[in-house]
Design a protein that fits this description.
By secondary structure, this protein is α/β, with parallel strands linked by helices. The chain has 2 domains: 2-145, 3-Layer(aba) Sandwich (Rossmann fold), CATH 3.40.50; 162-301, Glycogen Phosphorylase B (Rossmann fold, 3-Layer(aba) Sandwich), CATH 3.40.50.2000. Helix content is 31%, strand content 18%. It contains 10 helices and 12 strands. It has helices spanning 15-23, 43-56, 60-76, 92-99, 134-140, 174-186, 217-226, 243-250, 297-301, 305-312; strands at residues 2-7, 27-32, 81-85, 105-109, 128-131, 143-144, 162-168, 191-196, 209-211, 227-232, 254-257, 273-275. The strands form 2 sheets. The chain has a 6-stranded parallel sheet with strand order 2-1-3-4-5-6. Helix 1 packs across helix 10. The chain starts with a strand and ends with a helix. 31% of the residues are buried.
């Protein structure tokens, strides 16, 4: 069986899908367009591209990136299934060409269609469209599936550097973050809260760190290991579960989140997960007095990458 994944794997999550397929003995290939780099041949070409982007809404880098996808598929040949993540990054006519390489063309959308519209791709382009967003599932009649646990399950630690951790880009969530940090300090709860952006945001609470450097995956994992609880603040309009939730499940850590939809999932346990009102995020001190309750294995497995590939590619 041959399967190809096409994605922009900037955060290095998607390749775990290919690894899971390979472990099942499937010939799986990843066309990672984040790795494709186009070098302008001259200053003239760069200037030409600027004009085309500005006035004609055409981008030579995007065109070359999509040619790269087709060249790779031409090399690989016919596939039993092709999965595209973030289909909005690919033009409609290119989707039609990709579809000629398989009889099972699938998409997975792990962001809100409000942020990344896909209306132009809903006219029978894909055999199946999966989405992590419950509202989009209802609105567009997508199939629902969550993001996945991509890490091996980690043993529960007894010693931590801090009680709670989060890293995020400063946006509408900054007010929530400031409020939570102030409450933590008042309750003498240790935390490592970090904002990442080119400029330090105005009004950032004094005990929240800021950096203009990207936090790499390995550093992020270390912070997760060092924390007892993972803080998850969702953007406005998000109705799906972020990878922070699944990382917390893998590390068997408690979660504090503003994502109210988390209550709808089988792993929800109020002892392990504190759901906050995004407009008035009040911290409950009692949440920090109890230990993490281990999930039953059958529930944990429902949210693994292994279960994800079995479902999306109908392997069982």
């Amino acid at each position: 069986m041959k399967i190809t994944l096409i994605s922009f794997d900037y955060w290095n999550y998607d390749h775990h899908i290919v690894k899971a397929l390979n472990k099942k003995g499937i010939e799986a290939t990843h066309i990672d367009i984040s790795k494709f780099k186009y070098e302008y041949k001259s200053v003239l070409e760069k200037t030409k591209n600027f004009i085309f982007k500005t006035f004609l809404k055409q981008n030579i880098k995007k065109i070359k990136r999509q040619e790269f996808i087709l060249n790779e598929l031409n090399r690989l040949g016919k596939q039993d299934a092709i999965l595209v993540i973030r289909p909005d990054l690919i033009s409609l006519h290119i989707h039609h060409k990709i579809k000629t390489y398989t009889n099972n063309y699938i998409s997975y959308i792990y962001d809100s269609c409000v942020r990344f519209p896909v209306d132009h791709l809903l006219d029978n382009i894909f055999n199946t469209i999966y989405s992590f967003d419950l509202k989009d599932v209802k609105k567009y009649n997508f199939k629902h599936i969550t993001n996945f646990i991509y890490l091996d399950k980690q043993p529960i630690k007894k010693d931590y550097k801090y009680d709670a951790f989060i890293v995020l880009s400063p946006d509408e969530r900054l007010t929530q973050l400031n409020s939570i940090a102030q409450q933590f300090d008042a309750l003498n709860i240790s935390h490592k809260f970090v904002t990442v952006s080119s400029r330090k945001p105005a009004g950032l609470y004094k005990n929240i760190e800021h950096t203009d450097k990207e936090i790499k995956t390995e550093a992020l994992k270390q912070h997760l290991e060092d924390s007892r609880i993972v803080l998850d603040l969702v953007r406005d309009g998000h109705n799906g579960l972020s990878f922070r939730i699944f990382e917390a499940l893998a590390y068997q850590k408690k979660i504090i989140t503003t994502n109210t939809s988390v209550k709808k999932y089988a792993f929800y346990n109020p002892n392990n997960i504190l759901v906050l009102d995004s407009k008035n995020p009040k911290i409950e001190a009692d949440f920090f007095t109890t230990d993490y309750e281990i999930l039953p294995e059958e529930i944990y497995h429902q949210f693994t990458v292994d279960h994800f590939v079995d479902t999306v590619f109908e392997l069982k």
